[in-house]
Amino acid sequence: MAPAITRHTPFTLHRSTWCLSPQGKVITLHAMGKPQEKIETDKLRKKVGRAIEAYQLFGQGDRLMVGLSGGIDSLVMLEILSDRGKHLPFSFHLEAIHVYMEDMPDLSDRGYLKELGEKLDITLHLERRSTHRPGRTHKSRCFSCSWNRRKAIFQKAADRGCNKVVFAHHMDDALTTLLMNMTFHGEMSSIPPKLSMFNGRFDLIRPMILASSEDINHYAALSNLHSAERQCPWEEKNHRDTFQNLVQQISQLHPQARINLFNSMDRIFSEYLPEKPV
User: Fold this and answer.
1) Domain boundaries along the sequence of the chain
2) Would you identify the CATH topology of the domain 15-265?
3) pLDDT digits (tens, 9 = 90+) for 165-200
């Protein structure tokens, strides 16, 4: 009986090697001796390269600190930035930090993160923190955890002389935030590719901003990367999950739906919009 073919199991047919994409589509890895796998993964690398250039995310001599959550988005981003360092016409310094909480269950495979850091020859900092925030008992545990993680990332960036803090938010994240802010706050705002923080001390940058979640999962499958993040038992279900699903539904309506929504944030024709009543 033939073994079951999964998304990560290559199989041979007519002298070519194939596998299933994260969407269940059959794609070729090697055909007629051509490295099709590299052709496929280069698509995401090029999107990251385009974002770096278009938004001037970093340049010669910049020092980058990557926030490594352990999720597949941040792992893919770290590998691509490491690869970009070999091809960009300028040099930059790259480090990463993973923050874990001492008063929570073990939610990450830190051994796997260490192996990836060693493989990419990148200094990885493992920082232990607490979810507790003195005087902020009215905040949810999830909010306090996220706040303390970000605080640790910026503190380490300062300690290491980094001027860029790097997060792995992608286009789907930007669109989700846009729709949520329009719905709940009545404003058009999202997550920018580059944001100056602390009076210019840091730039928060997002090199994956032009990539979709499908792009990232596709790259991960072909590159044999897997998430080092485990499900948090206290993770809160919130509106973001609903709006993430909405972005997926909208993307099914038109091939360019994601791109068009994203571009609409920079193409606002105020003369065709209602004015605020006096």
Assistant:
1) 15-265
2) Rossmann fold (3.40.50)
3) 999 999 999 999 999 999 999 999 999 999 999 999
